[in-house]
Structure formats: C-alpha cells, structure tokens
Amino acid sequence: MPDASSPIQSATNAARQGDVVGVGSSAGKGWFYADAVKEHFFRPKNFMQDEAAYGDAAMGMVGSPACGDAMKIWIKVDPETERITDLKWKTFGCGSAIASTSMMSVMITEDGGKTLTEARKLRPQDIMERLGGLPARKVHCSVLGDKALRAAINDWYRKNNRHDQIQVEQGRIIDKVLKITDHDIEEAVLDGADTLEKVQQKCKVGTGDPSCIPEVEQLIRFYMEKFFGANSMGA
Ligand code: FES
User: Given this model, what pLDDT does residue 166 score?
Assistant: First the structure.
C-alpha cells in the first residue's frame, strides 16, 4: 500500500476527493467520466511507491503551464531489446492526470513492453481512446504523462551515451513581434482554446504580427486534431 502520509499520496487522495465531489455534484445526475477513467483513477496502476529502488532508472519530469501541476516518470529498459520493462510515475496532478498516466503505464508495459521507438509513437489520443474519452478541458492533464515519458526516454539515451537518439522539441517563433511560439499555441489549445479568437485571448498571437494568422489557424487545426481527434474539428 502507498504511504498515506507521503506528500504525493496526500496529493493523490486530495485530487481523488476533489474530482469525485466536483464531478458528482456539478453533474447532478452522476459521473461524466468513463468507467475506465474511474478504474484507473481509484486504482492507479504502476504508481511509484519506492523511489529509492529506482535511483538509477531513467527519469523524466514536466510541469503543466495550464495548471502548474507536475509529473515524474521512471522507466527501466532492457538494453538488448530496448523494450520498456517497467514504468512508474507520480504526480501532483488531478484525477484525469492520474487516470491517463495510469493507463499509459499499462499500454507501455503490456505484452512485454513497447520499444523506445514504439513508445515515442504512442499518442495522447491513443490513451484517451482506451480510457473512453476525457472531458475536453481535461485533455491538457492527459499530455503530462506523455511529455514526462518522452523526457524519461531522452534521459535513458543520455545515460547510455546514445546522444544521437535524444529528441528535443524546439519552440518555433510564429509571431515575430511578440515572440510567440508554436508551443504557446499548443498550450492554449490544450487549455481549451479551439478558435483563433480564443487562442488570441490567451496569448495575443497575431496581434503583433497579423501576417502570421493563417499559420496560427493551421496550427490550431493541427493541435485540435492531435489532441482531440478529427471529429472534434470545429466543435
Ligand atoms: S488540472 Fe492540473 S493535471 Fe489536471
């Protein structure tokens, strides 16, 4: 059993209670969450309980610009096959982050484990589909695990002197006047902005350099499809 007095366990318990109350009471007629989400929320798989035992494992950590929460992931990799044989995680994030990362940990390690290359191809959308969906405003929570996993994979390559395999996503400046990058637009979409006007309310992109607006609209479509699926376009 997890140590109930640990900060992460307290945070997990608080997150669970917060989501249960919030979902139940605001709906007035039951849950918004799919059964698979509730299963992974109440009984998270592969939750980190013994950090000391993973001292030499590859680790990735990210924070969410949208809400300030954080996620850590540890992976153990068979050096011969490059399959991820074990994945542990912990977070200060909410119930949706807990459920999606728990599901991701299962998808990464099932059937002998995905190779590092296969793991990089797993999309947040794949995890959401297996969970049966998440409320749109919770999608930014579901990418925390994915981003921390990518950081952990980079850390494994770094620890094994495979620097040529490290992938770092550089932000590309879209609005040259306000220095707004594609990552800023990605975060706005993850935070619920699905139109140019809503993205501009969050990051002002295009107000300094209107010539970039067609590219901004293209990026909004790209991120909407990436995180919410083709059916969400224009929703
Ligand atoms: S609100 Fe922060 S991870 Fe969900």
Answer: 95
Task: Give the pLDDT means over successive 10-residue stretches in the chain (235 positions).
Answer: 38 38 36 85 95 93 85 97 97 93 97 97 89 84 92 96 90 91 91 92 91 94 82 44
If asked whether residues 60 and 104 sit together in one domain, one would say: yes
Q: Are 101 and 223 in contact (CB under 8 A)?
A: no
Q: 122 and 47, same structural domain?
A: yes
Q: What is the pTM of this model?
A: 0.75
Q: How confident is the model at residue 234, as a pLDDT?
A: 42
Q: Are residues 158 and 203 in the same domain?
A: no
| Structural domain of 210 | 173-232
CA atoms of 183 and 111, how far apart (whole Å)? 34
Spatial contact of 90 and 101, defined as CB atoms under 8 Å apart: no
- For the Cβ of 93 lying below 6 angstroms from any atom of ligand 1, the answer is yes
Assess whether the C-beta atom of 64 lies below 6 angstroms from ligand 1. yes
Verify whether ligand 1 is closer than 6 Å to residue 96 (CB atom). Answer: yes
Please work out whether the CB of residue 94 comes within 6 Å of at least one atom of ligand 1. Answer: yes
pLDDT at residue 225, rounded to an integer: 85
Using the atom order of ligand 1, give the atom closest to the CA of residue 92.
3
**Residue 216 to residue 108: CA distance in whole angstroms:** 33
The atom number, within ligand 1, closest to the CA of 95 reads 4
Identify which of 137, 140, 143, 187 to mutate to test ligand 1's pocket (most ligand atoms within 8 A of the CB). Answer: 140
Contact yes or no for 202/209 (Cβ under 8 A) = no
Strand-pairing partners, residue 60, are 73
Q: Say whether both 141 and 179 belong to one domain.
A: no
The pLDDT assigned to 161 comes to: 95
